Amino acid sequence: METRPRIYDSIVSEHLATLRQMVFLSGPRQVGKTTVAENAADLYLNWDEEADRRQILAGSATIDAALAQAGTGENTGKPPVVVFDEIHKYALWKRFVKGFFDTHEKRLKVIVTGSARMNIYKRGGDSMMGRYFPYRVHPWSVAECLHTDIPPDDAFIRPPEKISDEDWDALQRHGGFPEPFLRRDPRFTGRWRMTRLEQLAREDLREVSRVQDLGSLETFMHLLGARSAGQLVFANLAAEMNVSVNTIKSWTDLFTRLYHGFLVRPWFANVSKALRKAPKWFLSDWSGIEDAGARAETFAACHLLKAVEGWTDLGFGSFELRYLRDKMKREVDFLIVRDKKPWCLVEVKSGDAPLSPALAHFQAQTKAKHAFQLNFARPFEAVDCFQHTSPVIVPARTFLSQLL
Questions:
Q1: 356 and 379 in contact (C-beta within 8 Å)?
Q2: In the chain, where does the domain assigned CATH 3.40.50.300 lie?
Q3: Which of 38, 28, 52, 25 is CA-nearest to residue 199?
Q4: What is the maximum span of the chain, computed from C-alpha positions, in angstroms?
């Protein structure tokens, strides 16, 4: 299978070279966190490995001895890098990592990685404030196929660049998770997707959920799988599953924290007659979505989420992903909020369609600088989308190449 560098290799490398804080990598299973961490590691310890687990439990002295035996850092002059993978499964992981970092801060670097469950266990009082920076790892995107360097501080929007037809088709058909994207084998992608869902239903849910009826949770997972790019009306879902609305909200939150998908909530500030209700739901893996419209919108949603979370993690500002809908049922699929102000409207169309009048309406309402309608059928055009300040139709290939 082909291997390719990732933008997260550059992000981790720059962090280790310039910052004292620990690196925390989070994201879905099989998104590539471990590979990125291993590429930077002098000593890699995985809690799931019994020998590594014994080494961690034995304490700092044992880890120091392992570093010394490996001779790390002797020839490079750089502090050695220690990786603790899946450490969040250790009940006292926060205390351990905090103590290890405080003891070794001046002479080594620390990377902490874990599955999506890491987000769950980070809840509550954070005793590690100021000791780490988080980076959220996402699947491959159009822009990452073109660039694996970090954008410069004064130009986090990339210049437009044409993605190869092979990479574009692979992203569309196989999704952005590294192994199916790089293998590009339809049979493998189908089996990989099925195995991943089974692992989520039978292992991840069992480990993190106190719900007794895992069968109902698995049914709900498949129900969510058919609703990507749609609004989640919790009352309707509760009736369909024969449970309470609060239970549906709790289950949805669980699948969100496990990175099965994510919610995009409506933006309502400064928008008259706006609804503050139903969020939209998107799967993290668009490869299995059959409906062309839902697939294109989910594809765009995953790219936009990667951009807003990446720009935020890298310090380019505080970004959020929202959508707009009012009581007149005018809607725009996405709104990027930058530093609490509407900045960019994005409507998604899988094929040719006239420019949506909702873009001009909501741009006037929100004062957003940009308003785009993405067309997935149009070929790449070497034109900077962000030069436009009025509503405009742009090729999806062009727009997405300018993100992260």
A1: no
A2: 7-136
A3: 28
A4: 69
CA-to-CA distance for 305 and 395, rounded, in angstroms? Answer: 19
What letter would DSSP give residue 385?
A: G
Residue 53: HSE in the Cβ half-sphere, 13 Å Cα cutoff: 11
- pLDDT (tens digit, 9 = 90+) per residue, 373-398? 999 999 999 999 999 999 999 999 99
98, two tokens:
């905090």
C-alpha closest to that of 222 among 263, 193, 184: 193
Backbone angles phi, psi at 75, to 5 degrees: -95, -20
Q: How far is CA 200 from the centre of its chain?
A: 17
Q: Which of 37-46, 108-117, 237-246, 248-257 has the lowest mean pLDDT?
A: 108-117
Q: Across all residues in the chain, what is the average pLDDT? A: 90
User: 3-state DSSP helix/strand/coil percent for the chain, to nearest 5?
Assistant: 45, 20, 40
The three-class DSSP label of residue 64 is helix
| Angstrom distance (rounded) from CA 117 to CA 186 | 29
pTM for the predicted model, two decimal places: 0.93
Q: What is the CATH number of domain 7-136?
A: 3.40.50.300
Check residues 272 and 370 and name the one with the higher pLDDT.
Answer: 370
Strand, helix or coil at 344? strand
User: What is the token pair recorded at 227?
Assistant: 């609703």
Contact yes or no for 368/320 (Cβ under 8 A)? no
**CA 318/CA 340 separation, integer angstroms:** 7
Question: What average pLDDT does this structure show over 245-261?
Answer: 92
